[in-house]
What does this fold into?
Amino acid sequence: MQRTLWTTLSRRGLFRRLVGLALLWLLAMGIVSVLRPPSQLALWPIESRAARRYGLPPALVAAVVEVESGGNRYAVSSRGALGLMQATRDKFARGQDPFDPETNLDVGSRYLKQQLQTFHGDLTLALAAYNAGPAAVERYGGIPPYPETRAYVRKVLRLYARWRTRRR
It folds into this structure.
């Protein structure tokens, strides 16, 4: 019986070690940090469809999902925001399942587009409004002084900048 390299590596557990070393090297080189976990990569086609439907960059929708829920379709915030894009119950039509990825991404993308229109295309203000509500952005005349909202805007913009150069 002839042994192949694959069977030799598999039997000795070397394949796992090689993969582990390769991932460590990629992490050290800063390459893996821009990639999403496999569970979130599966969301990309749905995120892209929802983004295109509302004229948004898919990388922006992906960045919002990552910061809002970490890709957990069953996420529920302490304030009652639901699903991937953490939309509130009032954003969904009667009978819509907020934990259905297609529905949640559609509702969240539509709301994000509305915020962009309300704030005349200013992405920073639209993201602040998505997080803290448009009334807070209007009341403060910009990003509200809430640490959570300021951190949220920074995180989304950082991920969006990273992913829009990686995805086409």
Notes: The chain has nine helices and no strands. The CA atoms of residues 46 and 102 lie 6 Å apart.
